[in-house]
Amino acid sequence: MAIREIVVFPDDRLRGKCTEVTEFNDELKTLVEDMFETMYDDNGIGLAAPQVAVKKRLVVMDVPKDDSDVQGLNKLVLINPKIINKEGSCESEEGCLSVPEYRATVDRFEKVSIQYFDENGVEHTLDADGLLAICIQHELDHLDGKLFIDYLSPLKQSMLLKKYKKLKPKN
């Protein structure tokens, strides 16, 4: 296992649609392990493959069920996930490992149902609400090149872009 570098906004690798996973093999399982290790190293609860510069439809998550949960208890691997149903709406304060030290409130669906494959190629259906539903929506957005900051007003987006361009190291 290895900790991978997280791609940080405004890097173009965070944009664009990811391709479907077609091979369920040891290479995929290594990527999944690396993504969990990377996510845990940065205290995240979700990580999408484009955040580690891999343009595949793959997400790992470990969303706590309550405050007493320890990391590793709720591991979830979503490969080629699709939202098949969505209900209600809620506001969510979100952050992102690819947009460090920034949080904002965005509108999300309150409940979602998804279809996905696990790392062994087994198909599953999952109904989610609360933080899990929000995390799913946030991470699936990454697979289509969308960030939570894209839900902000154009003015807030512009200010954020200026801030992160200043922070970006010069080559």
Protein described:
This protein is an alpha+beta fold and 171 residues long. The protein has three helices and seven strands, in the order H-E-E-E-E-E-E-E-H-H. Strands 1-2-3-6-7 form a five-stranded antiparallel beta sheet. Strand 6 (111-117) and strand 7 form a beta hairpin. The protein is globular.
Task: Characterize the overall form.
Answer: globular
Number of helices: 3
- Structural class call reads alpha+beta
Taking the sheet with the most strands, its summary is:
5 strands, antiparallel
Order of helices and strands: HEEEEEEEHH
The tally of strands reads 7
Flag low-confidence runs: none
How large, in whole angstroms, is the Cα Rg? 16 Å
Helix fraction bin: 25-40%
Rounded mean pLDDT is 93
Distance between the termini: 29 Å
Could you tell me the strand content as a percent range? 25-35%
Taking strands numbered 1, 2, ... along the chain, how are they ordered across the largest sheet?
1-2-3-6-7
List the helices and strands and how they pair.
Blueprint: H1 26-41, E1 46-48, E2 58-62, E3 75-87, E4 90-96, E5 99-108, E6 111-117, E7 123-129, H2 130-143, H3 154-167
Antiparallel strand pairs: 1-2, 2-3, 3-6, 4-5, 6-7
